[in-house]
Amino acid sequence: MASSELVLGIIGSGGDGVITAGEFIVSAISSEGLFSFLLKSYGAQIRGGETSCRVRISENPVQSQGDEIDVMVVLHWRDFAKFRHEIDLHEGTVIVHDLDDPLPDSIQEEFRALNAVVYAVPFTRLAKEQMKTILTKNIIMLGAMIQLFGLPEQGVRHALEKKFSKKPGVVVKNNEALDLGMKWVADNVDKRDDYLLEYTQSEPRLVMEGNAATALGSIVAGCSFFAGYPITPASEIMHWMAKHLPQVGGRCVQAEDEISAAGMVVGASFGGAKAMTATSGPGFSLKSEMVGLSGMAEIPMVVVNVQRGGPSTGVPTKSEQSDLMMAVYGSHGDSPRVVIAPTDVEDCFDTAVYAFDIAEEFQVPVVLLTDQFIGQRKETVRRFDLGRREVYERIKPTEEELKDYKRFRLDAPRGVAPMAVPGMKGGQYPAGGIEHNEYGDPSSRVDDHLKQTERRYSKYEHIVEKYSFVREYGDKDAEVGILGWGSSKGVIKETVMRLREQGHKVAAMIPQLLHPFPQEAFNKFLSGKKTLVVIELSARGQFLQFVKARCDIPAKIVHYSRPGGKPFTVREVKDTLLEVL
Hints:
Layout: E1 2-3, E2 5-13, H1 18-31, E3 35-42, E4 50-58, E5 69-74, H2 77-83, E6 89-98, H3 105-113, E7 117-121, H4 123-130, H5 137-149, H6 153-163, H7 168-188, E8 196-197, E9 206-209, H8 210-220, E10 225-228, H9 235-244, E11 251-254, H10 258-270, E12 275-279, H11 281-297, E13 301-307, H12 324-329, E14 338-340, H13 345-362, E15 365-371, H14 372-375, E16 378-381, H15 399-402, H16 446-467, E17 470-474, E18 480-483, H17 489-501, E19 507-511, E20 513-515, H18 519-526, E21 531-536, H19 542-548, E22 556-561, H20 570-578
Parallel strand pairs: 1-8, 2-5, 5-6, 6-7, 10-11, 10-12, 12-13, 13-15, 14-15, 18-19, 18-21, 21-22
Antiparallel strand pairs: 2-4, 3-4, 3-16, 9-16, 14-20, 17-19
Helix pairs in contact: 1-5, 1-6, 4-5, 5-7, 8-9, 8-13, 10-11, 17-20
């Protein structure tokens, strides 16, 4: 049976080249004009351990990783057991495994119940005995997938050539391994399943990882300084910056720890540079004092938090939406900051630009709150117009203002006073974390603290007015609404699409500006809604608590939340909606 959509899963150990194989598939299908979605999953070990990836292939745009796996390749059954709780199979799922690693009895029973089609291919033996290197096992596996399921052969070969362009001998060896996998299947396997990818070739599409899109958007916004410390799942941002930021005259520093990285960013920004850092939950906790300093001294700062499962070290390689309260409130005192949440890989680029614009325009720390599900996945994106918009530059004082320079003047329009940089004649001022008067001189006067606090927070209304971007889907007159945020957007949007195809009326709202919260837009969305379904990947419902603290919700609230580790599926969100429709 020809298929224009296919969900593939690959499971193995570190060193098997599982992720590399998935990326070759994505590169190949994207070169054919297909849409793709690559989800990676790892164990928490520094080296080795279990590894898996899932690739969704379609002729049409895809919003999520897909509910169930059509074809699953298992290189080691011991690793399959570690991922079993993340994998949804269906009736007739195709299983391809290593011939020399036979199915355990318990798994055989499960597959028989599913009427699964099982193929065994000697990936390891072929790699060792015929290719003389185990490193070709994943390429032999790709050859088998081409022969069995119609993956684009020339696209895979082109991906191999591009990856190893500086090593022509490796390209030759990999092409031989690809041929070997295809030939072995052609000679030894009797195809008994209905999956065969067929499609109309079109213009190649761009594929990008979320962390790379965040880094690219930051550079487009004018970022010239990055300081960070390696932490999963945010390290790719620092890797990308280390490679590309110097090419545009910027600097990338690997600091000795998370606190130092945040301090370097505040210092670089004080000196006039657009500066950022990136981390995950544990690192953000350490940066919280510097975020407070940025808020008090009104020094622009962008902090990317690629969320992972917590608390403490938690689940470092899996996704969760449980850092919201820390992002909004993670500092002592009344500490102003802005929190933005991208919803997909393409959004990572756009919201990174917005984060710098807001930080520079309003002189506040901005937290870009993404997560592992977005940060480390690859998906099809539009081709970014890197020069499509004017980059915002912070306001500097005029010569007249420098004659009596009040860095923190109370009558500043929209609460934003011009910011001098070191070396500007007359622009000297104390820039510390202690409360101050209009000149920046330390002050413990109650009236100074009151007036400066009010001015700092007066920026919020102007930020919401200018940057209150939300995404809405579905029927405007629906009586049932869905509210979610961040990486939950994809499954929510796809759920709305499926329910509308079945004749149901439903609407969804995904705010990207989370703090300050766009209350006016939310109230407008709530109009006419009898039921509001709130979806979040948080065990204690942080998002619902957050919204209820700000808005009166007259509609009946249905809350669907759970801890992270496994992203939401369309099926579970749809089943929740069907209970109230």
